[in-house]
Amino acid sequence: MEKATVRDLVNVEGKRILLRCDLNVPQDKNTGAILDETRIKASLATIKYLLERGARLVVCSHLGRVKTEEDKAKYTLKPVFNRLKELLPDVKISFASECVGPETEKMANTLKNGQILLLENLRHFAGESKNDPAFAKQLSLLGEYYVNDAFGAAHRAHASTEGVAKFLPAVAGFLLEKEIKILGEAISNPKRPLTIIMGGKKVSDKIALIEGILPLADNILIGGGMSYTFCKVQGGEIGNSIFDEPSVDKCKEFLATAKNKLVLPIDSVIADDFSNDAHIDVVDAGKIPNGWEGLDIGPKTVELFGSYIAKSGTIIWNGPLGAYEMSNFSNGTHGVAEHVTKSNAITIVGGGDAASAVTVMGFADKMTHISTGGGASLEFLEGKQLPGVLALLEKNVKIS
């Protein structure tokens, strides 16, 4: 981590800190209740560190995708505000109904040491996603320093992740620092063998990841919907399973250049409908009849993957291995998760659906690290530069 962090802010007492967190939490569609507060709790280390040193925090985040006026009412950070008050009962926390503007500036300017102002959803303003300099400037008026602790949004060049760093001294929070450090070490200096577990629907979604990680990995275990395109390329019958035709040439290329590293399923759990109530069978890979589709890796594949996992020194997992949200097709992901937790390897789950799956299944506390950033961790592992990280000050720059 060659970027400055909150530790480099020598004296923050009485200073207003604009703190970008990733509070984009999943919520119940009907009640708005928070379904998973992992990201809120992940922000607490930086929040508490700054509050203990007398800072005045202006906390901001995005939530959901806001496209209409109705979306503004739907995607509000008020439930997060209420939960923060419960998690920090001794801290005075206020809520600003707008993330910028004269009234919000007044609220920020009247904060006292050790207090928090949480701003309404940044995406209520189109200037956030457009990285509008004028909007970034308005945000910058709320703080004297900027701290980015939103790893989950660091791959986006938005006003609150990249633009505001042009106006304020910008450093990383503890969560952002931790994510970059753990993921960076896992791919730059891994304990070997390095095994990548890769799932998801389409090969096209993971081409860049495969290309980026292929030279570094010792084994790449492929499951999920993407495995059926590889299977068909090899002459297998996949019935009605997902087939990513535009990625056929890439699959052929990967099989030709790295067949010794790629480990594909040897059996599949199939169904005659995409439903938990469908008729189910288990067949060998490449023998799925017409009218049926593969929805999970089979028990033989779980054991095959387990044999590689047991010998691994580092494991990075990105993407579920089946339609885990339906109980009849969750056994593959569950079984592999069990193997991962029983290994002696460094185990990293790269955010997104894989993180949700292992959390729901009760394995989260048995993993070395679960990333808070789905898209950000994916792009980082692909070898891409993250705009939200690039925008921060270098480690040895004097901060004033």
**How many helical stretches?**
16
Q: Overall mean pLDDT score?
A: 95
What percent of residues adopt helix (DSSP H or I)?
25-40%
Strand order of the largest sheet: 3-4-2-1-5-6
Shape assignment: elongated
Low-confidence spans: pLDDT under 50, at least 5 residues?
none
Q: Roughly what fraction of the amino acids lie in strands? A: 15-25%
Radius of gyration: 23 Å
Number of strands: 17
Largest sheet: 6 strands, parallel
Q: What's the oligomerization state?
A: single chain
Given the helix and strand composition, which structural class is it?
alpha/beta
Distance between the termini: 21 Å
What's a concise summary of this model?
By secondary structure, the chain is α/β, with parallel strands linked by helices. The chain has 16 helices and 17 strands. Helix 9 crosses helix 15.
